[in-house]
Design a protein that fits this description.
- There is one protein chain.
- This protein is of the alpha/beta class.
- It has 8 helices and 7 strands.
- It has a 7-stranded parallel beta sheet.
- Keywords: Isomerase.
Length: 199
């Protein structure tokens, strides 16, 4: 039993201090995978609209942009991502509150997924921020059918609390690769998800 999605952190060294990789490396990876895996691009970049075409051509299936980045007209950005053949998603950093402006955006159904960061974006291996889970619950109560993803510090010890809060898409990096048995960790997280979500 493998992972359903491959979550790739695209960092530009500006929006976050770290620097990872861009479209050429992603394209090499997607060629290798031969479209067998859903490619989830978490874009921690300052001007995401500049990279939509290149990331789509590289094989991305979903492009997650940060609300806090220089996204410009958000409706236009969502449409640009859709027109490029990818699912649009919106990420929120821990300090970003779900206010009236965000509710208006989500009510328009511009995005197929909302990502709630449970660590500060930019570096792996951080401690899971439990106090972010009420955001997940708030969103799930208002939007029962949208994909809600949590990312940051998720492992087998806290994944159930993520599902119970309302998340249905789980990102785990260190929680898998640093586990004694990575495959067993994947299996456990997926089984927990199946018990909480039937749709």
């Amino acid at each position: 039993m493998g992972v359903d999605w491959l979550h790739l952190d695209v960092m530009d060294g500006h929006f976050v201090p770290n620097l990872t990789f861009g479209p050429p490396i992603i394209k090499c990876l997607t060629r290798r995978l031969q479209n067998r895996t859903f490619i989830d691009l978490h874009c921690m970049i300052q001007e995401p609209r500049k990279w939509i075409k290149d990331l789509s051509n590289a094989g991305g299936h979903q492009m997650t942009v940060h609300y806090e980045s220089d996204i410009g007209n958000i409706e236009e950005l969502s449409q640009m991502i859709k027109s490029a053949g990818m699912r649009p998603a919106l990420a929120l950093k821990p300090k970003t509150l779900i206010d009236h402006t965000l509710i208006e955006i989500f009510d328009k159904q511009l995005f197929d997924m909302i990502l709630i960061m449970t660590v500060e974006p930019g570096f792996g291996g951080q401690k899971f921020m439990t106090d972010m889970l009420p955001k997940v619950t708030q969103l799930r109560q208002r939007y029962p059918k949208i994909d809600i993803q949590v990312d940051g510090g998720v492992n087998c010890d806290n994944v159930i609390s993520c599902y119970e809060a309302g998340a249905n898409v789980i990102v785990s990096g260190s929680g898998i690769v640093n586990a004694k048995d990575p495959q067993q960790s994947i299996n456990y997280m997926k089984e927990c998800g199946c018990q909480h979500f039937k749709w």
